[in-house]
Amino acid sequence: MARPPLDIHTLRQNHVLAALPAADLERLAPHLQLLEMPLGKVLHQTGDVLRHAYFPTDSIVSLLYVLQDGASTEISIVGNDGLVGITLFLGGDTTPRQAVVQVAGHAYRLPGEALRDAFHRSDALRLLLLRYTQAQITQMAQTVVCNRHHTVDQQLCRWLLLTLDRLPSRELTMTQELIANMLGVRREGVTTAVGKLQRLGVITHSRGHIVVLDRAALERLSCECYAVVRHETDRLLPHPPGIEEPLKSPA
Amino acid sequence: MARPPLDIHTLRQNHVLAALPAADLERLAPHLQLLEMPLGKVLHQTGDVLRHAYFPTDSIVSLLYVLQDGASTEISIVGNDGLVGITLFLGGDTTPRQAVVQVAGHAYRLPGEALRDAFHRSDALRLLLLRYTQAQITQMAQTVVCNRHHTVDQQLCRWLLLTLDRLPSRELTMTQELIANMLGVRREGVTTAVGKLQRLGVITHSRGHIVVLDRAALERLSCECYAVVRHETDRLLPHPPGIEEPLKSPA
DNA sequence: CCGCATCTGTTCGGTCGCGCACAAACGCCG
DNA sequence: CGGCGTTTGTGCGCGACCGAACAGATGCGG
After folding, report:
1. CA distance B127 to B130
2. A31 DSSP 8-state letter
3. Residues 72-111 of A near strand C (Cβ < 7 Å)?
4. Do A130 and B89 touch (CB under 8 A)?
């Protein structure tokens, strides 16, 4: 699919943009630029001054923290439900976190000033962004608990579900090594967990490619953390009408 | 309404209130009510609709998440540097977290509508609250990483330092059991860690009472997480002039 | 000053995840 | 088709933390 940069339909693939009143969106549109988001692209490094916000359409971005010794952990995950760069309107100019493209795709880029500007001018946008911030906070908080109390197996399920919710398909391209980086665990741990899921018939996988066969099972095997985050996200960010809901589980 | 407790000095013990322009503070003042904050008081439960915000003066409040099986973990900690209830202006009316008084003392209580109102009216207050939100996010993010990668010993140091930063003294009243709840680990783990610190001469303790003897050592023994949070907090929330800095390490 | 509840210290076996070291499978490319 | 780098599978030994159980210590209230 070729993407003329300002196709309204493409714009509205991002839920935040889609939920904006037409007037707000039109004012923002001239500043929005559609970008390729290749796997592994670093949107900003630890300590960088943020210059842009990114509104993913079909890409997924991980916010992660990298420790001095190189160990890393995913703090939260951003897909077409949100944006990278809440720091821009919260006020600090930098964050001690890194944003990395975890699933290749596209995103709209918006200069920081334009976002800040819109944030102050538009009540609707402000409301939306603040609620999204709240959703992000919930996600982080749940990650805290999950890291502390749940097994790698459970966390893998949670992570798969969160990622799946932000994808248009049931497949995802991602090596176990990368998943391990996200979860902050060893690759071998992920291998084992993936093996179990495969044996249970919940997924199939081969060399950087995972297909989810039984989403319901995944939800059963996951810890409560996924449900909490999902519930809160749905509550805080009602999905835009007319845009179909990706992967809402029928159960 | 008679309100003896509205001593401006006491008000300004809370850094957020202290940083407000006089006009904003005066408008808020009639709504502020000084409260006793006894140890263990629950400000709000999981799922509660928030009615008030709380601005601690000499108390400390923990935001924690309690899992279905009863296990808990502290998500962030709020003292006189901030407020409980950022959800009020972020937009969700409820949070899936619990707020519990961890160190007894006092706090000013503000009705939710008053906070929301002020948030929308006052640029200064909005700026302040958003930056504080950012600081809270940093704290949570760091807690994610810390839970994943660091030992109980290190985490205890981090926790002691964070708590100490929000206290006017070097002593704190807190059983190991409670600390364990905060950190989300077993009490025995805390006992061991505390024992080590005692042997090193960093703290002394007895029955729910810990005195920090060597703060610098605590910082050395802590993981990098404390420094990151402290640095970000200081950067985002400049301390109010004229109010002395509690426990800034002389080094 | 005694009793008792609370808090703290310690032990022991078990499990989970880590670090390391390889071996096997896969798929891309020449 | 064969080689090679990447990805995945597995098997150790180890340390950290857990769960449970219990013994000592401490301080408060009667």
Report:
1. 5
2. G
3. none
4. yes
